């Protein structure tokens, strides 16, 4: 009887796993079809590219390989998109096959890699976009040898028509469809729920648990839930009067510690990037010390200003200028550089509202000093942004030293501005 029961449970478990695998595959197919129908035509035409060739080699896939549906690549293979007029872009695959790719319904034609030259000649594109970029790694999938091979196969005539698809790749990835945003919301729910569990007595015992223990617990949750992450070890760190004291090390969590998590999950090719903050109560304490609470409250006020100011239809650089202008009017100080707080009694702020989506740091418009090229891209409705910033406020309990409060949650840009995709960080979490 026990053997039969175990066998039955195995069947149930296997069936549930297959259903979840199929659910995720179907949703990703919907995203791909929607993006090919709705985003690809405008992105190719805005960038004046007639044909987009994405080259892949076995063991060396282009960063956009998951977006395109993956598949089995032999020696070499290509996803090829051709603007032949009309409302639809022709989608073809040469030298890549497989059940999941072919059954996804996104492509019009599957052929051999050896057809490439004849395929291109028949369409005679004037500008051929290739994934080459000096600035954005996610748009730089074509290797030097891959370029040489394309030039040799297609000949000088078409080599002279090669152009960088850097901006096309950015536009295609960062302009989101509804099915994609739905997945991102699901990923966000998992991300913040796990982070808040990690910063609780379920996981942490003061004087016993290490920062590394918490980070490994989060890694284990990724494994258990069949999730990924675009980061390595989750950043679980202690911030004190002198700044960050330790990150994901064997440092034991003590009473009175101010803790932060910086991490994200990957679900169906969508990756979050968010933070949570916690305080470990000292003996006899029932709440967050006033100075630390005030620092958090000031950061929340900063978040409100940032949220209210960012709007679509302008470059990320203009959005950044507008945010700092609004923060200054609200009484905050623009910090002169990252981790360079002033002695002013004001809260110092530096923002880094970067693109998110298919990695924790995406390739779309980015209101962040560390993405200089993407600062020049226009913010569009449906772009995903991590609303990230660092606010430094003096804490009397620390002798007037400033506490760096890092807030970060993910949002979608709509015609109305910033809209959250899941419940954002509302408070300092308490660990008893």
UniProtKB/TrEMBL annotation:
Pfam families: Peptidase_M24
CDD domains per UniProt: APP_MetAP (cd01066)
Keywords in alphabetical order: Signal
Signal among keywords: yes
Signal peptide: 1-18
Top-rank taxon, per record: Bacteria
Every Peptidase M24 domain range: 186-415
Name of the molecule in the record: M24 family metallopeptidase
The organism of origin for this protein: Imperialibacter roseus
